[in-house]
Amino acid sequence: MENKVLKQMRLGAKIKKLRELKNITQDYMASRLNLGTTAYGNIERGTVKGLSVERLMSIAEVLGIDFAEIINYDLNKPYHINPGQQREEVPGQVDEFYTSCIIAIIEQGTQDKKMLIALLSNMREANSRLAEAMAEHNKLLHKIYAKQQELVTILQGRK
């Protein structure tokens, strides 16, 4: 399997080339994607960790092309893209596209799973600390209550 960083860099280079072919600026892409220009530039440089399928689909939408065009774009064969032009589907390319999509979804799911596990671990730890704090709080409340009872007894004895 290819190095993930290299895949991301190539994907970013493909996005950049397709954007340039459409004469679209990075500023325009960033604004349409609700990103800062630097954040969008990081996508094109391939320095973004875990570019999601949803983000890739949004990029394709702004470029006015099909999601598959980004994944299947051959950087060695520069060409102009005509919006609305029918693409001849070659069976191998379709299979490769779906395989790429499935791999991207699985990778994103794996990342999401790791993030959820870390989040749950942090929540367990926070819950444990909260339980300890509550136990300490209850001890202090019992001490305060006992002191109040002593004070009431003393005050009643003075009457």
From TrEMBL:
The keyword Metal-binding does not apply. Gene3D superfamilies: lambda repressor-like DNA-binding domains (1.10.260.40). Transmembrane segments: none annotated. Pfam families: HTH_3 (PF01381). The keyword Methyltransferase does not apply. SUPFAM superfamilies: lambda repressor-like DNA-binding domains. Residues 116-143 form a coiled coil. Signal peptide: none annotated. Residues 15-70 form the HTH cro/C1-type domain. Keywords: Coiled coil, DNA-binding. InterPro entries: Cro/C1-type_HTH (IPR001387), Lambda_DNA-bd_dom_sf (IPR010982), TransReg_Diox_bact_type (IPR050807). This is Helix-turn-helix domain-containing protein. It comes from Chitinophaga horti.
